[in-house]
Amino acid sequence: MVGVRLSISLQRGRTRLAFTGALTGLLLSASVPAAFPAPDPDTPRRGTAYMGMGVLAHDGGDSDPDALSPVTRASQTEGVDVSSHQGEVDWSTLWGSGVKWAYTKATEGTSYRNPYFTGQYNGPYTTGLIRGSYHFATPDTSGGAAQADYFAAHGGGWSKDAKTLPGALDMEWNPYGDSCYGKSASAMVGWIRDFLNRYKERTGRDAVIYTATNWWQQCTGDYGGFAANNPLWIARYASSAGPLPSGWSSYTMWQYTATGKTVGDHDRFNGAQDQLRSFATG
Asked: CB within 8 A of 145, min separation 6: which ones?
């Protein structure tokens, strides 16, 4: 009898050990998180986009800032655009080099605000430059009206003081994914319209549209319906602005290089300084 009880006890012990081991294995496997793909190291972090980022990546090229013809230099007014990438900007040096206007990135989507915005927006104003702000659009994250509200509430306003330019909407290749933000041409046009209409409601001014002809053709189907009211800021790093998107017969501003002095991104306003001031007042 003693032998039988010993055998039964050993069998029960082995059963308990087996059950405990199986349970431990289940608990361990449940506590180990599932493996997810590592983030693409080539995809930038949200909020880091800046005006012209997609132009460099997709249109390529760049122009010698000193190669503009004397006629262009005489008839147009030099400007720059900045974002958090420039940090603290030497506005006095820019003014001394002939720069008379500047745009600063204010917002992106509905969650990013440029941490350098205050200095980069007030700096040109106090130095004597005419200043404005721009919004980097991310149509895949929220609606156009919502992003216009966010922009207007965080630096995208306008005042009729002859020193503040209307806000600009930056429409270019998506640095975080699909070039057209996953939208069809008609859906993209609708998104842009929602932004522009809301911005006009909030500020009383029609926003400037910044874009590259190739992106506009690819992602809006070369829609020409905004040209009647919204000034064009064309992006092309070459010796000329090249063909313009449908509807616009001329540009108001042209981003012509990413390798300018002091600040890389340099632009031309298509007119003299007094015309720039008139444009600012609306």
From this structure: 194, 195, 197, 198
Determine the Cα–Cα distance for residues 217 and 173; give it in Å rounded to an integer: 12
Rounded distance between C-alpha atoms, residue 140 and residue 127, angstroms: 37
Strand stretches in the chain, DSSP E: 77-82, 101-108, 112-113, 130-136, 168-170, 208-211, 232-235, 253-257, 266-269
Distance CA 83, CA 80 (A): 10
Active site residues: 81, 170, 172
- State the distance between the two ends of the chain, measured CA to CA, in whole angstroms: 107
Q: Which DSSP state fits 59?
A: I
Binning the chain into helix, strand and coil, the percentages to the nearest 5 are 40, 15, 45
Question: Is the pLDDT score of 37 beyond 80?
Answer: no
Q: Judge if pTM exceeds 0.90.
A: no
